[in-house]
């Protein structure tokens, strides 16, 4: 890369200046923004006061220009770099056949005293939310619990004729829904930079919708959202019960599907389980492919830990972990992947502090709180309350001798959950449920196991309840 920048005032600026500007930008805009948006920029040249940066997609250039352009110029000013204007041009990939570079995005310094035209809510809405650069397919570890979701995501990321529309990904907290959606977006943008791929959470969709209403820019809002090529909406359960947002979402959804544009949705549960979602939306969400990210199993957790350690080593090299430490963590931390990552980050910090091998004892000591939390078992009370909510039965009925099916089945489910999620013995469970005999509990647990194998509704109920209680 050229090491020297020409300043329009004749002074020379070395590459160090860009380095310095980057440092202060990190402080000014925060580490996350910096890593996602500024770090990937490549400095191309600086001529006549125009500093040019290479970006991978026009989306990236557009985003940086709108959101950080002003701050970048401010930092250049501080360093007296003589930069008046920024240009972001999409750099063709080396391996790709020579292709025409796209028209660069430019950020021109606003002319004082004329105020810079602020991007309207709707213009910003088009850009969605920033993508996390760590959330790529490369970094997604595939195992049994997520293989179907991964395969579907890969298929959608290949682009081409829409096959699963919408793709609906669901699963418990921290199981990789957002990661997969960002991975699809990165891949699509890499394959086809001209595509308008918009990712945002359902909450952001709602706020942008409200802002457009308030600013009387609904027409813009509608046409912008209807002009995207791929729309991804994360955590769609958020709009349940929010009627006008649902309505708008429904129309956007239909318009895009009609144009055969790809839609990808995520939620913490299956479409049919989201209370407060209009029936017409619920059924449309089931039109395409609905896939489930199951809770992680031991092998997947271990794979994720190993991958993260490798990544860490490739950056910092020195990291020694005794045999058995990762296995221990994969065994003991059974919650979501975010918790696993948190545990590892702490171990990495510890390793860099002590400067020697991380042993099992050290890991146990430094992660005591996380391990304790993971040990936390669901209480009987929580199970009973959840069952009452879920099946709409009264606690007094659950504990009563009543045997009608609408009471007996929830009670059996509660016993099954108690057996699987708590350390309680059969007699203890029986006692808690209105002083029943332990054989009744054994029978209930068996009954639910049997029903789960025969009746998909029971299997789904059991899985959902277990997830909700473990979340
Ligand atoms: N299979 C995986 N391989 C590697 N990292 C993973 C995997 N699954 C999850 N992660 C990591 O775990 C963290 C949480 O994942 P993510 O944010 O995608 O979860 P989520 O399902 O969207 O959760 P939430 O319901 O809280 O939004 C992220 O840092 C992600 O990279």
Automatic annotation (TrEMBL):
<dbReference type="InterPro" id="IPR003593">
    <property type="entry name" value="AAA+_ATPase"/>
</dbReference>
<keyword id="KW-0235">DNA replication</keyword>
<dbReference type="Pfam" id="PF08299">
    <property type="entry name" value="Bac_DnaA_C"/>
</dbReference>
<keyword id="KW-0238">DNA-binding</keyword>
<dbReference type="InterPro" id="IPR027417">
    <property type="entry name" value="P-loop_NTPase"/>
</dbReference>
<comment type="function">
    <text>Plays an essential role in the initiation and regulation of chromosomal replication. ATP-DnaA binds to the origin of replication (oriC) to initiate formation of the DNA replication initiation complex once per cell cycle. Binds the DnaA box (a 9 base pair repeat at the origin) and separates the double-stranded (ds)DNA. Forms a right-handed helical filament on oriC DNA; dsDNA binds to the exterior of the filament while single-stranded (ss)DNA is stabiized in the filament's interior.</text>
</comment>
<dbReference type="InterPro" id="IPR001957">
    <property type="entry name" value="Chromosome_initiator_DnaA"/>
</dbReference>
<keyword id="KW-0067">ATP-binding</keyword>
<dbReference type="InterPro" id="IPR013159">
    <property type="entry name" value="DnaA_C"/>
</dbReference>
<protein>
    <recommendedName>
        <fullName>Chromosomal replication initiator protein DnaA</fullName>
    </recommendedName>
</protein>
<feature type="binding site">
    <location>
        <position position="176"/>
    </location>
    <ligand>
        <name>ATP</name>
    </ligand>
</feature>
<comment type="similarity">
    <text>Belongs to the DnaA family.</text>
</comment>
<dbReference type="GO" id="GO:0008289">
    <property type="term" value="F:lipid binding"/>
</dbReference>
<dbReference type="GO" id="GO:0005737">
    <property type="term" value="C:cytoplasm"/>
</dbReference>
<keyword id="KW-0963">Cytoplasm</keyword>
<dbReference type="InterPro" id="IPR020591">
    <property type="entry name" value="Chromosome_initiator_DnaA-like"/>
</dbReference>
<dbReference type="GO" id="GO:0006275">
    <property type="term" value="P:regulation of DNA replication"/>
</dbReference>
<keyword id="KW-0547">Nucleotide-binding</keyword>
<dbReference type="GO" id="GO:0006270">
    <property type="term" value="P:DNA replication initiation"/>
</dbReference>
<dbReference type="GO" id="GO:0003688">
    <property type="term" value="F:DNA replication origin binding"/>
</dbReference>
<feature type="region of interest" description="Domain IV, binds dsDNA">
    <location>
        <begin position="352"/>
        <end position="471"/>
    </location>
</feature>
<dbReference type="InterPro" id="IPR024633">
    <property type="entry name" value="DnaA_N_dom"/>
</dbReference>
<dbReference type="Pfam" id="PF00308">
    <property type="entry name" value="Bac_DnaA"/>
</dbReference>
<keyword id="KW-0446">Lipid-binding</keyword>
<feature type="region of interest" description="Disordered">
    <location>
        <begin position="90"/>
        <end position="120"/>
    </location>
</feature>
<dbReference type="InterPro" id="IPR010921">
    <property type="entry name" value="Trp_repressor/repl_initiator"/>
</dbReference>
<dbReference type="GO" id="GO:0005524">
    <property type="term" value="F:ATP binding"/>
</dbReference>
<feature type="domain" description="AAA+ ATPase">
    <location>
        <begin position="163"/>
        <end position="293"/>
    </location>
</feature>
<feature type="region of interest" description="Domain I, interacts with DnaA modulators">
    <location>
        <begin position="1"/>
        <end position="95"/>
    </location>
</feature>
<dbReference type="GO" id="GO:0005886">
    <property type="term" value="C:plasma membrane"/>
</dbReference>
<dbReference type="Pfam" id="PF11638">
    <property type="entry name" value="DnaA_N"/>
</dbReference>
<dbReference type="InterPro" id="IPR038454">
    <property type="entry name" value="DnaA_N_sf"/>
</dbReference>
<feature type="binding site">
    <location>
        <position position="178"/>
    </location>
    <ligand>
        <name>ATP</name>
    </ligand>
</feature>
<comment type="subunit">
    <text>Oligomerizes as a right-handed, spiral filament on DNA at oriC.</text>
</comment>
<feature type="domain" description="Chromosomal replication initiator DnaA C-terminal">
    <location>
        <begin position="379"/>
        <end position="448"/>
    </location>
</feature>
<dbReference type="InterPro" id="IPR018312">
    <property type="entry name" value="Chromosome_initiator_DnaA_CS"/>
</dbReference>
<feature type="binding site">
    <location>
        <position position="174"/>
    </location>
    <ligand>
        <name>ATP</name>
    </ligand>
</feature>
<dbReference type="InterPro" id="IPR013317">
    <property type="entry name" value="DnaA_dom"/>
</dbReference>
<feature type="binding site">
    <location>
        <position position="177"/>
    </location>
    <ligand>
        <name>ATP</name>
    </ligand>
</feature>
């Amino acid at each position: 890369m050229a090491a020297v920048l020409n300043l329009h005032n004749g002074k020379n600026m070395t590459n160090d200046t860009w380095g310095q500007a980057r440092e202060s930008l990190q402080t000014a805009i925060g580490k996350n923004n910096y890593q996602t948006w500024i770090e990937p920029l490549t400095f191309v040249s600086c001529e006549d006061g125009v500093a040019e940066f290479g970006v991978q997609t026009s989306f990236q250039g557009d985003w940086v220009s709108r959101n950080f352009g002003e701050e970048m110029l401010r930092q250049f000013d501080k360093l007296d770099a003589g930069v008046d204007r920024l240009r972001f041009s999409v750099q063709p990939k080396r391996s790709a056949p020579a292709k025409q570079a796209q028209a660069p995005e430019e950020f021109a310094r606003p002319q004082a005293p004329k105020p810079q035209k602020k991007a309207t809510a709707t213009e910003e809405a088009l850009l969605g939310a920033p993508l996390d650069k760590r959330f790529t397919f490369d970094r997604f570890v595939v195992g049994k619990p997520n293989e179907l979701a991964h395969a579907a995501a890969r298929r959608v990321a290949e682009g081409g004729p829409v096959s699963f529309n919408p793709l609906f990904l669901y699963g418990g907290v921290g199981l990789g829904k957002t990661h997969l959606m960002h991975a699809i977006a990165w891949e699509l943008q890499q394959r086809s930079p001209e595509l308008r791929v918009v990712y945002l959470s359902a909450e952001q969709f709602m706020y942008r919708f409200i802002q457009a209403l308030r600013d009387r820019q609904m027409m813009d809002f509608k046409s912008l959202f209807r002009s995207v090529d791929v729309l991804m909406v994360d955590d769609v359960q958020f709009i349940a019960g929010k009627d006008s947002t649902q309505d708008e979402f429904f129309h956007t959804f239909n318009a895009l599907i009609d144009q055969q544009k790809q839609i990808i949705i995520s939620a913490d549960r299956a479409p049919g389980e989201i209370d407060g979602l209009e029936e017409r939306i619920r059924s449309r969400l089931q039109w395409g492919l609905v896939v489930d990210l199951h809770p992680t199993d031991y092998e997947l957790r271990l794979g994720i830990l190993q991958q993260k350690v490798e990544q860490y080593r490739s950056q910092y090299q020195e990291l020694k972990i005794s045999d058995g430490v990762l296995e221990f963590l994969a065994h003991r931390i059974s919650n979501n992947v975010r918790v696993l990552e948190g545990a590892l980050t702490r171990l990495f910090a510890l390793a860099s502090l002590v400067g020697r091998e991380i042993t099992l004892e050290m890991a146990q000591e430094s992660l005591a709180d996380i391990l304790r939390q993971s040990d936390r078992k669901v209480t009987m009370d929580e199970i009973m309350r959840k069952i009452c909510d879920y099946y709409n039965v009264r606690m007094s009925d659950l504990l009563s001798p009543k045997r009608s099916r609408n009471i007996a089945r929830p009670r059996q489910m509660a016993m099954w959950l108690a057996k699987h999620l708590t350390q309680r013995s059969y007699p203890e469970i029986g006692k808690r449920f209105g002083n029943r005999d332990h054989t009744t509990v054994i029978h209930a647990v068996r009954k639910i196991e049997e029903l789960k194998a025969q009746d998909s509704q029971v299997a789904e109920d059991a899985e959902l309840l277990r997830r909700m209680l473990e979340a």
